[in-house]
Specification:
152 residues; mainly alpha; flat
């Protein structure tokens, strides 16, 4: 009833359940390939981190067959903020992600994501909606970047 009154979420609406432990915490215990053929970085997104960590674990297992590397520091992509009109909050998250992910992109390591909405936010919304343009974006992932191209 509190969510109904305060947030406007109907009392019968299903709410996501938080997972027992985040993906980032679980990642530390996952086996890493001894000699990966190719390095990649994984942007897991909030849903994988907090609600569906098994998606991230499956991704690590699949990537581990051909490529692996980094789990860089990352924050929410900012899409919930953009969707609710908090462009200043989204811009703060985007700039923090840019600071943490740009060195990875500049080093030539592909960044892969399992969340379509997060990856499109990183690739498109940062530029088009938040207006983040400039020289720091030159090595940022372009919309044509796909996981299949990095793991081939």
């Amino acid at each position: 009833m509190l969510a109904d009154r305060v947030l406007g979420v109907h009392r019968d609406a299903p709410l996501p359940a938080f997972s027992q432990g985040s993906f980032r915490r679980r990642f530390r215990r996952l086996p890493q390939p001894a000699e990966p053929r190719r390095r990649v970085a994984y942007f897991h997104g909030c849903t994988t981190n907090y609600y569906e960590p098994w998606v991230g674990e499956a991704t690590v297992r699949v990537l581990g067959r051909r490529a692996w590397g980094d789990l860089p520091r990352q924050r929410c992509c900012g899409l919930p903020f953009i969707s609710n009109g908090d462009f200043a909050g989204a811009r703060r998250l985007a700039e923090a992600n840019l600071r943490d992910l740009l060195p990875v992109a500049r080093s030539g390591v592909p960044i892969v994501a399992t969340s379509t909405s997060c990856s499109l936010t990183l690739k498109h919304e940062y530029r088009e909606v938040l207006g983040l343009h400039g020289p720091e974006w030159r090595s940022w992932p372009r919309p044509s970047t796909t996981c299949s191209s990095c793991c081939a």
